[in-house]
Amino acid sequence: MRIPQKQKKEKKNFKAKFTNTVVSSNVNASYLDEFMNKIGLRQILTKEVSYVKKPNARHNTIKIIDYMITAVILGYHRFLHLNDLRKDKVFQSIKGYLLPDEKVCRNLLAALPESTIEELRNVNNAILRLKAANEENHRFVDIDCDDTVCTVFGSQEGSEVGYNPRYHGRASYKEKFGIITDTSELVNATLESGKNHSNNDFLEFLKRITKALPETWIMRRLRVDKGFFDEATFNYCEENTYEYIAKAPVKGGLKRIIEFVLSNPQKYQWSDINNTYSVTEITTPLPTWEKARRFIIVRKKIKSKETKQLKLFNEAHYNYQAIVTNIDYMTPKEIFSDYNVRCNMENKIDEFKEGYSFDKNSQQDKKCNELFLMIKMIAYNIQNWFKTAILPPELKTKEISTLRRIFYKVAGTLSGSGRYRHINLAPNILLSKVIPFVNKALNSFTVITT
C-alpha cells in the first residue's frame, strides 16, 4: 500500500508593516474637536488662565490644557498614556498643533501657580454659563452632593489615613462633588485630605455651587447624605429659600425622638410604601437647635435569620432612618421617594472614577493632583454637553466608557485636507446612522456667546 506524501502546511504568518499614517483609532475625535472649537474652549482658557510660558517654549499653556482635556475624554487618563495619543499623526492633524510630550504636561502642572486651580474653576463655570445661554428657557435645578474616598499608592502630599472602606489603613484623598440632578453637570469638585469628614467646609462648598450657577439656572433643592447633616447648612438654605432633603444620623437626640414616636402609635401612624418600608413624620427641634424642623421617620422591615422560635412566631425586626426637610407641600412618601433620586449620584461617581479616573492622583504634589482634577471636571462637562447637544437620542444616556467603545475609539482613516477632509470607516450599521446625525447636529449647532 502506498503511503501518501504529507501535504505541506501553508504558512500563516503575516508580515507587519508600520508605515500607515492615515489610520487612527481616534479619528472620530474630529467631531468632538469641532464641537470644542464651536464653543470656543481655547478662547475661554485664554481669558481665564493667566499663566504664560516662556517665549521660546515649543508648547503654550492653552494648547497643553486643551490637549489634556481632549485626551481625558478619549480615555487617555494616565500621563504615560498621553504619549500614545501624541504618536497618532491623524489626531495631531485633527488638533492642528504640535502635541506635547507627557513630561511637558506634568511640568506644566508643576509650574502653574496655586491660583490656577481657581482659574480652572472659572473655566468650568464659563462653560456652564455658555451652555445656559444657549438654552431657550430658565430652569430650576436640584443639586446632589456626595464625596468619595480615593486611595493613593505612594506618598502624595496632603493625603492622610482616614475612613477607607476598601483599603483599611491606607492613605487617601477625599473628593467632594456637587452635581445637577437631571442633566448631570458637575458644578463643583474638591480634593481634600482623606482624614476630613464629609461635612468639612461643606457650607463653603455649597456657596461656591450657588455662586457658580448661571443666572438662568435657579437653585431649587439640595439633597445630601447624613455625612453632610448640619444645622448651619439648613439655616443657609432657609435664608436663601432653597429646599433641602437631608438624611439624618440616628443618634443622640434623634434616637430619643424616634423612641417618642414609637411610644405614641396612635398619634404617629405608619404609612406603608411597600412591603419593606413605611413612613411617618414629626416636627420637632433637636436638643441643640433653636427651631423645630420636619423629620420623616422611615421604618425598614428586616427579616431576622430563621430560628425555630422565629418560625413559630413569625417575628420581624425594624431599623429606623430619618430625613429632615423644609418642604411642607410633599407627603412623607413623596419626600422618601425624592430623596432616593439621589441614588443616581453613586452611578455618577462610578463614572467619574471608571470613565475619567477622578480617583487616580499619581502626582506627589497635591496642587498638581488638584489641577488635573479640575481639567477632568472641565473634560467631563464638555463631553456631557457634546452628548446632549450633538449625539442622537439613543446615545444621550450612555456613559463615556460605552461612547468610547461604539463612537470615539473606532478605527478609520482621515483623508483630504482643509474643508474637504473626510473620514472612512469600516461597515458599521450603528455608526452609519449616528455619523450623519452628528454631522447634521454640528452643522446646525451655533453658540450664543455670553
The number of helical runs is 16
**Mean pLDDT figure:** 91
Proportion of residues in β-strands: 15-25%
Structure summary, number of beta strands: 13
How is the biggest beta sheet arranged? 10 strands, mixed
**Backbone shape:** elongated
Radius of gyration over alpha carbons? 27 Å
Helix percent band: 40-55%
Structure overview:
This protein has 450 residues and is an alpha+beta fold. 41% of the residues lie in helices and 19% in strands. Strands 2, 3, 4, 5, 6, 7, 8, 9, 10 and 11 form a ten-stranded mixed beta sheet that branches. Helix 2 crosses helix 3 (61-74) and helix 7 packs parallel to helix 14 (366-390). The N and C termini lie far apart (92 Å).
Question: In a few lines, what is going on in this structure?
Answer:
Helices cover 41% and strands 19% of the residues. The chain is α+β, with helices and mostly antiparallel strands and 450 residues long.
Entry keywords:
single chain; 450 residues; alpha+beta; ten-stranded mixed beta sheet; 16 helices
List the helices and strands and how they pair.
Blueprint (H helix, E strand, L loop, with lengths): L22 E2 L4 H10 L2 H8 L12 H14 L4 H8 L2 H7 L6 H10 L3 H19 L5 E13 L8 E2 L9 E10 L5 E8 L8 H11 L4 E8 L6 H9 L3 E6 L4 H10 L8 E2 L4 E8 L8 E10 L5 H6 L3 E9 L6 H9 L3 H13 L9 H25 L9 H9 L3 E4 L6 E4 L3 H16 L6
Parallel strand pairs: 2-6, 6-7
Antiparallel strand pairs: 1-12, 2-4, 3-4, 4-5, 7-11, 8-9, 9-10, 10-11, 12-13
